[in-house]
Amino acid sequence: MLQNKFLFLFLVFCVLVSCDSNMVYDVYKTVPNKWHKDSVVSFNITPPDSTNAYDLFVNLRNTNSYKFSNLFLIVEMVFPHGKTVTDTLEYRMADPSGKFLGTGLTDVKENKLWYKEQVVFDETGEYKVNIQHAMRENGKVKGITELEGITDVGFRIENPIIK
Q: Which PROSITE patterns does the annotation name (predicted)?
């Protein structure tokens, strides 16, 4: 009987801790064994309203087979009425000693990477976010065709944290 109470309290604790009140949108898409340079990961988003500002993030999961200390991404946001904003972004994935950044106790690390802050979705309709990698090896012009070690790509919208 006492064991059941502890189990129940533990489950309630886990549910309460895992709640994320800032999250508005959070979707991951799995990348096949290798992320091809022409493979675009797309997210269709219908924002909840057009009056609030939101913080936007690119989420990535990588394994120890990721060979680089940084990551270049091309992130494109297509607005409902046709306007497109394209950004080339660089993120640090490992510290100088080679230890991967991000969270996770196993060989899979989860990275929450800033994309834009205080974004107001002032156009009604569906937005589309496209993400693809733009990795190159030092001293080489041709990009990496198949990037190993990235397992999932995600996009997240949050209510900003009030400081």
A: PROKAR_LIPOPROTEIN (PS51257)
